Amino acid sequence: MKKLHLILCLLPFVNFTYAQLPPVFGPEYVKVASTSEMVKTYLTPQRIVWQSDDSGESILNSERLLEKGNGQVAVNDKNLFRFVSTENEKPGILLDFGKEIHGGVKISMGIRKSKTPLKLRLRFGESVGEAMSEIGGRQNATNEHSLRDFIIEVPWLGSVEVGETGYRFLRLDVVDSGEDVPIKSIEAAFVYRNIPYLGSFESDDERLNEIWLTGAYTVHLNMQNYLWDGIKRDRLVWVGDMHPEVMTINTVFGNHEIVSKSLDLARDQHPLPQWMNGISSYSMWWLLIHKNLYDYHGNLSYLKEQEPYMIGLLDQLSTFIDKDNKETLNGNRFLDWPTSEKPEAIHAGLQAMMIMTFQAGADMMSVLAKPELQKKYKKIADRFKKHKPKDNNTKQAAALMVLANLKDAKKQNSKVLTKDGVQRMSTFYGYYILEAMAKAGDYNSALSVIRKYWGGMLDLGATTFWEDFDILDITNSGPIDKLIPESNSDIHGDFGEYCYVGYRHSLCHGWASGPTAWLSQHVLGVNVMDGGNKVKISPNLGNLKWVRGSFPTKYGVLKVSHTIGEDGKVKTEIDAPEGLNVIQ
Asked: Which of 256, 290, 379, 443 has the most Cβ atoms closer than 10 angstroms to its Cβ?
């Protein structure tokens, strides 16, 4: 992978620090502007995807944009990139920064006779197609949530920095005629958290390794002021969507304050009897996330802070059960988008979630030394178990019923979860489908799903995982990093439904990171227990020959490696931090 070049950020009134770029960019260290964990790094384009003129008349010296610069304009710069516009030719160029990033762009102009600012139209895109698109139309490019298509002015012998969105590609077009403008540089202003990747995963399958790291990077980009679901669109705290993200953060970054900050925001924004984000299942996910947080990190004082709201929410949920022990939840009844028009699937999933939620509630009441409430919530969970929803053919609901012990894991795995391969998957609930497959002991099938489904996005040029992906859309579709001929479909612009039609579709969505947490837990075999005080090592290599990795714990970083010996048995080596109880 070609390394992305970085330049010095010259901003006043900030502290400078040496920060490491996320692993997907390579190991180089650079100076960046920083006031906290949040840093800003400037990236040079990696390639020119397209330019409107190759004759050398309206676009000159375009290769200069790919050279690492010093970030400072000067009066004697020579042979700079130039835009030359006429009444009939207003040139444009499309740049590729190599990876999906969050941030904006910094454009610097050299010296010229006219001191008037240069008007440029900017179009940011998560795909080549989006960066080349017009707002609206059948392919549904938008400026919603974050501006990605607008006009700016670049000052004479100076710089301008604009934009805050998720993108990889940037198209720039001259707006006015009669311009002859030297451009010193066009650099991505990449904003991210400077935090180490404490967790890691390596195996003899490079495809799985890339998937693990891509999931980690997808969530990393969404760790902005709060934990968002998307960096272009859905720059919001969606509590249900947070669950896979939190599991990935636990796996890669350890106990990070952005999780509690986002959970507390959701709690305070939605006083009872409101459902979080207007969705009853999302309030249940809030409770389940707190259960996972305590299991991994054992922060009792933080759990106690949630006690009043938690008890109030559990008591509110307990009123939504009928005489036949069926859930009767109101509000927006939602699991994920592919099941949103299937009432039987939604009911089955919500029934399962009620069981998991009250079981988690009982466990947390035990930790909080409230035995009467523990008994009360366990009894409610047992009531919900008495109703078994009708069979349905959705993998999402089937997975939840397996996880809630409403259905037999092996039967559901063979009947529903593995049927038709990776068709009818969803990037959000793919995590729970993998969890259910693990419960059925079918690790080879789960690894195959990861390779084909999440790997299918990589095959199409993805550097982060997407809001939604239908494997059937691959047919005759071109990748996101190329211009698509009319004879092919655009995987980004020509598909999608519900809220993700066409280019509105987010190509960096944290809820799609499930394989990262799953591979570390089930393949590397790190199972955290007892409030983070204990770890059980239970690897499941499937058809892999070896796997090694690290995992952040409350005592430090745990390192584990497994190798299949000639006798077919797994040889395990463990390097555990002092104080951590490790069992096998």
From this structure: 290
What angle is formed at CA 381 by the lines to CA 394 and CA 529, rounded to 5 degrees? 85
Beta-carbon contacts of residue 571 (< 8 Å; ≥ 6 apart): 562, 563, 564, 565
- Please tell me whether residue 319 adopts helix, strand or coil conformation: coil
User: What's the pLDDT tens digit per position in 432-443?
Assistant: 999 999 999 999
Per DSSP, the three-state class of 485 is coil
The one-letter amino acid at 282: Y
Least confident of 16-25, 35-44, 301-310: 16-25
> Which H/E stretch holds residue 259?
helix 257-269
Strand locations in 110-179 (E) = 118-125, 149-154, 159-174
Q: How far is CA 34 from CA 39, 198, 200, in A?
A: 5, 21, 26
Query: Which is the CATH superfamily of the domain at 6-193?
Result: Galactose-binding domain-like (2.60.120.260)
Place of tokens 């523990």: 374
Q: By three-state DSSP, how is residue 577 classified?
A: coil
Residue 382 gets the label, from left (phi > 0), alpha (psi -120 to 50) or beta, of: alpha
Beta bridge partners of 154: 118
* Amino acid found at 524: L
CATH 2.60.120.260 residue ranges in the chain? 6-193
Q: Could you read off the pLDDT of 249-296 as tens digits, one per residue?
A: 999 999 999 999 999 999 999 999 999 999 999 999 999 999 999 999
Q: Which residue has the tokens 């980004």?
A: 492
- CA–CA dist 550, 513 (Å, integer): 18
Instruction: Name the nearest CA neighbour of 159 among 202, 105, 205.
Output: 105
Angle at 105 between CA 103 and CA 109, to 5 degrees: 165
Rounded CA Rg of the chain: 25
Q: Is residue 20 very low, low, confident or very high in pLDDT (cuts 50, 70, 90)?
A: low
CATH topology of domain 200-467+506-528: Glycosyltransferase (1.50.10)
